[in-house]
Amino acid sequence: MGSSNFSGRKWFPGTYEGPFHVLIQLAQRIERLPWPVFALILLVLALLPSRGSPQHAAILLVFFLSDWALIAALPAAQKSFGPAKPPALLMAVLRMPFAYLPLPWFLLFQAAGTFLAIYAFWVEPHRLTVTRQTLVSPKLPPGPPLRLLHLADLHLERMTKREEELQRLIHDLKPDLILFSGDFLNLSFVMDPEAWADVRSLLEEWKAPLGTFTVSGSPPVDLPQVLPHLLEGFIHIRSLHGEKVSLHHNGREFDLVGLDCTHKPFLDEAKMLAALGSRSDRFTILLYHTPDLAPEAAVAGVDLMLSGHTHGGQVRIPGMGAIYASSLYGKRFEAGRYLLDRMTLYVSRGIGMEGLSAPRVRFLCPPEITLWEISGTN
């Protein structure tokens, strides 16, 4: 797949631009509505498909209010910390077509909606999984594999059981190298000192024999005035800003390149090429927040590119995949492993979730960390 020229584009995913940001702003206005006004809106929506039946409208309103309540209870349960009204309104709209069904189908579909809501808001966002990948490269000599742990999109709001499980997994997996591809904080908590402290408590434990390396994520998330506070004093962590480092493992030497992300490949390509330098025969890993630089990286001779940013879409539909992937290439690089010429690209589903007024939800897209075993051939 060849690269595309996006220099004439007016908006870019991962920035304060475009239709997604417009929806987020609209949702923030909904969250500011007084609760009686919002309850009245739900009542009106419940009346629309009721066909004049007060009982039908009352049942539907109970389901609407239960959605609102189960989302509003998430912060108290230390699950997630987003607003309740915008996702409750969205769920009410999604429920309405099924409200036209006759009994008992009306009740069955509404009950199924509640079950899915409980799973998507309360269960799956905390079902942190380990995805195992292997890669064999002729650029590396044979020997015990390099165990590389890729982490992406922490998006921390507060310390929860998910982050506690993350620390346990890192300790148990014992990787040789840890790479983090950006987005430390949730967008709602970028200036929150308590969230900063929680991030630092996590980073304190991200230790590996070859070190831990990070890059910045989306510009609105990983603010340049905040990142130094998060990383200050950690000698085991190095943040890469358009740099290449050479690493050694069991007699093997390979290169790691880390880039800051602007979400504009036509700007970041030049920084990548400058960091790579002259083309070499050494195995090269590129750590970059979004997959949108992958076509250029493949042409430049990168062997393995590790990215995130898309979160896998957070909500996936069977047979369709991600509803929205926040990429210049649409759904082309939404999640998982891809082969571009000779380069392997992996796009992580990430650990955390979107911020501001976006729903703290995952469905058929659990959070993940990825353990790579990279070895060579004769």
Please tell me about this protein's structure.
With about 375 residues, the chain is α/β, with parallel strands linked by helices. It folds into two domains: about 90 residues; about 250 residues, Purple Acid Phosphatase, chain A, domain 2, CATH 3.60.21. The protein is built from ten helices and 14 strands. Strands 1-14-2-3-4-5 form a six-stranded mixed β-sheet. Strands 6-7-8-9-13-12 form a six-stranded mixed β-sheet. A two-stranded antiparallel sheet has the order 10-11. Helix 2 crosses helix 3, helix 2 runs parallel beside helix 4 and helix 3 packs parallel to helix 5. It is elongated.
Supply database-style keywords.
10 helices; 2 domains; alpha/beta; about 375 residues; Purple Acid Phosphatase, chain A, domain 2; about 20% strand; six-stranded mixed beta sheet; elongated
Write the layout of secondary structure elements.
Layout: H1 18-31, H2 35-47, H3 54-72, H4 85-95, H5 105-123, E1 129-137, E2 146-151, H6 161-173, E3 177-180, H7 193-203, E4 212-214, H8 227-231, E5 237-239, E6 243-249, E7 252-258, H9 265-276, E8 284-287, H10 294-300, E9 304-307, E10 316-317, E11 321-322, E12 336-340, E13 343-347, E14 368-376
Parallel strand pairs: 1-14, 2-3, 3-4, 4-5, 7-8, 8-9, 9-13
Antiparallel strand pairs: 2-14, 6-7, 10-11, 12-13
